[in-house]
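Hey, quick one: can you model this chain's 3D structure?
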Amino acid sequence: MTYQVIWSESAARELAKLDRSVAKRILDRVDTLREQPKRGLRRLVGVPYYRLRIGDYRVIIELVEDKLLLLVLKVGHRRSAY
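Sure thing. Here's the predicted structure for all 82 residues.
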């Protein structure tokens, strides 16, 4: 069972603004979640989203298990990601 990764428009724009090496690290790490999506994800309190930590950057993800989807909602530096 592999999950499909879908990037929101805003997350794609935020990723494009980042340094190329940081963006590649984020893309590679999100891609590894396709096989085991809960590995490395932490549930956020009070909202139905998860966060993925990649150095000083955070990726906010919605996990839709019944449709095997990983929806990437936001990408940003840890001080502004939440």
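One thing worth noting: The helical segments are 9-17, 20-32.
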